Amino acid sequence: MEKNEDVSKVEFVPEIFESALHDIMNPFELWLLSGDLQDSDDSSPTTVIRMVKDILNQRLIDKPPGIVLAEAVQYSPPLASKIWNNSGDKKIENKNSVILTKDLEEQLLQKVLYIINNTGFITAQEIRYCAEKISGKLVCHNWHVDFILRHNDVIGAIQTDKIEESRVKVSEESVFIYKILLITETKGIPVELIACTDEVGYQQYCDARRRMIIARNANTSKPLHNPTDREERHISIMSGAGMSGDCMLPFVILKKPVDLNKYLLAGTRHGIDAYIAEAVRTCMTGLLFCEFLPNCAVPFFDIQWKLIGADIRTPAAILLDNCPSNISEFSRQICALNNIKLFTLPPNSTQYLQMFDFGIFGAFKSKLQTFRRHNS
């Protein structure tokens, strides 16, 4: 689309103008207006349209049809309508243009370096938050990019390799196939019997995209020391919720040995508030998922069947990621015996398609990444 200054070079033709508006305006007033426009230094289509609108506001004429007005000024109807409705290009604040003074820039840099020195890294979100706090103005979502470039001798983004890059790529064809599969296979299944499940914990926290993490320039090629690399206790939680909003019993994975009495004293009752499972590592495995299904998923669907007045003959569905531990032979047998359909998402699409992930766990992981850090 050309800008107004380009189309404003269109010459004003009195004959075309008067012919188009002959049936709308009083002939004498039309003649006077045409004469004024000929004598005017600015007779661009924009000026003509605005003058006609001023006359309309004085109730001297009826509102001309848009196509007629566009013909009168030899203008395209969309642009004529745009000028008539005063909906042209508006000046919008460019949040990215927020420039800090030299002192404020140095203050922000020292704040960033202080966080990096104490925690090992800082996220782009935190840099923008600090910039807004210091400047008192909003910044756009990529403001940190220029900030890092201005100080690339001190800080830099963690480098990614091909394997890490491939982990965030999603096949559009796979997503389309998954969509068709869901529409076909979940037809007739009540929302109370369709559940989304996902696992979260410190492992998911470490799974944050490294390209969003900023460290000292000398450390951009070094691997991060995630909490799982240290000798400290970690947990992993497998949980789910139905499309109706009903929640499953959380499946908590703890490293051996586990003292259930200690958790009971803390107010967590095994099998009531949460199902506590012991494992060599705090992450989901094929055996643990087979333990999750009969102790958390199947009881959930039993309650849901009773709630809607149905029984096991009404199929249920679980939507989860395509981790190999979720699709073992035993897990599929358990689902088949309980009339539960098991749907796995396309590779690398959990954070985009798994409602339980970005709806519930996404906020948890964001909070964890921002505030807990390495020294949690």
From TrEMBL:
InterPro entries: DDE_SF_endonuclease_dom, RNaseH_sf. GO terms for molecular function: nucleic acid binding. Gene3D superfamilies: Ribonuclease H-like superfamily/Ribonuclease H. Residues 306-367 form the DDE-1 domain. It comes from the Eukaryota. This is DDE-1 domain-containing protein. It comes from Streblomastix strix.
